[in-house]
Amino acid sequence: MLEIGKYNTLTILRDTKVGLFLGDPENDPEGIHDVLLPNKYVPKVFEIGEELIVFVYLDHEQRPVATTLVPYILLNEFALLRVNYINNVGAFMDWGMEKDILVPFKEQARPMEKGKRYLVYLYMDKQTNRLVASSKTNQFLSNDQLTVEKGEEVDLIVSHITDMGINVIINEQHKGLLYKDEVYDDSIRTGDRMRGFIKNIRPDNKIDVAVQAQGFESIEPNADKILSELRASRGFLRLNDNSHPEDIKTVLKMSKKSFKKAIGALYKEKLIEIKEDGIYLVN
């Protein structure tokens, strides 16, 4: 069955003047959902009966069409997209296709501006049967039935940043919060993707996340990071137990607590020496 807004593996059925017609003979033997791959996307070499992986979306007349262009977002996913123009129905965003994707005014968390980027969710509007996007992302997330556990490694998307912390989307399903005082990278922006860990799940199903594993699990990656920095700095870092937390954050993007745990583990393994002026890599 043809899936609009997603990649489809389809069979080349016939070659015409306007392009190749693709379909799924096994699940659609009558060819009701055959779709055109226009000439400009047709591979130089092909055979009838060969399978192609294509993205299927709706053209200007809302007809399914196939393309080999790579979309910036798929159906039921989030992405940071740029507004190309605005008219009387809403904002139109660049999503890698010839036809821009619409964000209706009623689906804008705040009025969008041309040239700016916003985190949006792509969905199929049931009333119009069209692909549209929305920057009101919370409506597509739910913490009612959680699919994650404490300590689990997860995928994070930065949703928006407030005074309290960094709101994130967890595995494109749940809402979570990353506290600012636990983040040691000032370059984090809306739309950034990163790996994180479930730090705590509260009784009301609100989720706290961290960018580093908690407890002993965090020591090994931090230790590896310090070793890498030492090797890149000719075996010496001007940091030790007495260094100011901001200095550690600037150089290593980690907390002083994590730093002390990591250098303690490296010292026990006799991989470093800790001196008054800093730490040294043991040859």
CATH superfamily of the largest domain: Winged helix-like DNA-binding domain superfamily/Winged helix DNA-binding domain
Distance between the termini: 61 Å
Count of discrete structural domains: 4
Strand content: 35-45%
Discrete helix count:
3
Biggest sheet architecture: 5 strands, antiparallel
**Mean residue pLDDT:** 90
Counted beta strands:
18
Order of helices and strands: EEEEEEEEEEEEEEEHEHHEE
CATH fold-level label of the largest domain: Arc Repressor Mutant, subunit A
Question: Characteristics of this structure?
Answer:
283 residues, mainly beta, OB fold (Dihydrolipoamide Acetyltransferase, E2P), five-stranded antiparallel sheet, CvfB_WH, WH-like_DNA-bd_sf, S1-like domain-containing RNA-binding protein
Question: What secondary-structure arrangement, pairings included, does this model have?
Answer:
Blueprint: E1 6-15, E2 19-23, E3 35-38, E4 51-58, E5 64-67, E6 78-86, E7 90-94, E8 101-104, E9 117-125, E10 130-134, E11 153-161, E12 165-170, E13 174-179, E14 193-201, E15 207-210, H1 219-232, E16 236-237, H2 245-252, H3 256-268, E17 272-275, E18 278-281
Parallel strand pairs: 13-15
Antiparallel strand pairs: 1-2, 1-4, 2-3, 4-5, 6-7, 6-9, 7-8, 9-10, 11-12, 11-14, 12-13, 14-15, 16-18, 17-18
Helix pairs in contact: 1-3
